[in-house]
Amino acid sequence: MATVADALIQAGVGRGARLVVAVSGGADSMVLLHALVRLMPRLGVRLHVAHVHHGLRGRSADRDATLVSTEAGRYGVPVSVERLAAESRRRGTSVQVWARDARYARLEAVRKRNRAAWILTAHTQNDQAETLLLNLLRGTGLRGLAGIPPVRERILRPLLTVPRAEIEAYATAHGVAFREDPSNRSLAYRRNRIRHQLLPLLAREYNPRIVETLAALASQVREDEAFLAAQVRALAAEAVQKCTPGVRVDAGLAGAAPPPLARRLFQEAFRRAGAERLGLTRRHLAALAQLVSHGGRVPLPGGLAAWASAKYVWLGRATSEGGAGASRGRPARPRSFAELALRPGRWVRWEPGRCLVRVRRAAGEAVRLHPKDHCHEVLSPDLLTERLSLRAWRPGDRFQPLGLAGQKKLQDFFVDTRIPRAERGRVPLLMAGQRIAWVVGHRIADAFRWTGEGAACVAEVRFLEEQHGVSAGSDAAFGD
To answer: Which of 15-19, 23-27, 122-126, 294-298 has the lowest mean pLDDT?
Structure first.
């Protein structure tokens, strides 16, 4: 079958490659195996058949395994029959979800055991159309409309552009033996109702080429989705960082991004926060967008939550943002950390906030070219005449934020800038003697503002997660 050969060549499958072929015993996978056996001399590949026995259909499943083993032996191809224990299914997990996840886990184990390059499955164009309709009926975005990818990680689907009618014709023409799974005829499953009722209705009443049309739509959407994914990767490299207490998203960059990119940016942040196998609904994504402009807190799937601070939207464990006590409105006590002396020109590590802070003298061009953001502040050189240190906030702390007429309680400043309770003890304060000179990463004190003339003092903070492997304890790593 030329389509199979083309798919392998396009995926970069070279001569000598080992391939694990997932064979259930049905027509699709038995045809795939037959076609691959015929292509072996031409392509120079080595095959290993993997059959997963789910332990769900008794003797019928046993006969499937026997057929696969017999045919693989007749072709001279080694075979592994992987048996699952149905009682291992976690309570509350649907049989179909459990079977799919367990099947792919076993196929991956067979691939690693045989040092194979790929796992080949026999999904067809009809499977693609069914999946697209299934996702559409559940409610989906572009990612769901992209359907089944032809290649995902180490999984290759060489029959994805082939309609099931062509598979059946091939089986008849070449005398390929296969078995019918009785559960595929049961209308208890939504996919089967789509296969046996909805798609025939659409083909009969609306579009005789509906399967091909839907598969073409999925292919086009995948191209669009791939472009958007590349845009999101570039944006996430700048906007998303993993740090204590979870993952933070730059609120300014997220707010300025077009909605399609912003939604995907939050999906990526959610994944990095530990939700590899979960997704966010439209309702979640809309609530996250509101966090950027209005602040607040949003519960997320998987025991995660999102909350806003002055500059970031944070995603992490639900207990990280003040815990249950905070959700009932009880004030959190500031954590007590030792005060650290700070010598001008040297980086000091503030472990609670996983960051480095430095203060140094600067003048002339160095001041004018200095970045203008909350991680780099230019202050009065008088700061260097004071004893400098870092410490956490304490009840009763006050300072005069730059631009304000009078002093403000630091606790009120935290509230106004939407810094979560659980985060306040991690924010270092740059102290000049007994006075707060800089709430690091947020605001300097008006008393230490630079007048714009002459020498200045530059204060900087760098978060350790942003160092990309550079030793945070090395002063030499952060030279001027």
So the answer is: 294-298
Q: State how far the Cα of 49 lies from the Cα of 68, in Å rounded to an integer.
A: 8
Please say whether the beta carbons of 359 and 458 come within 8 A: yes
H or E element at residue 479: none
The residue that leads in pLDDT, 405 or 108, is: 108
Per-residue model confidence as pLDDT tens digits over 15-71: 999 999 999 999 999 999 999 999 999 999 999 999 999 888 888 899 999 999 999
In 3D, which of 261, 241, 239 has the Cα closest to residue 250? 239
Residue 419: predicted pLDDT: 78
Task: Identify the CA nearest to 347 among candidates 424, 461, 444, 428.
Answer: 461
CATH number for 244-321 (one of 3.40.109.10, 3.40.50.150, 1.20.59.20, 1.10.150.120): it is: 1.20.59.20
pLDDT of residue 364: 65
Question: Which CA distances in Å does 56 have to 21, 60, 96, 109, 399?
Answer: 22, 9, 11, 21, 68
- What DSSP string describes 60-100? HHHHHHHHHHHHHHHHT--EEEEEP-GGGSPTTS-HHHHHH
CATH 1.20.59.20 in the chain is located at: 244-321
* First and final C-alpha spacing in the chain: 63
2-221, which class in CATH?
alpha beta
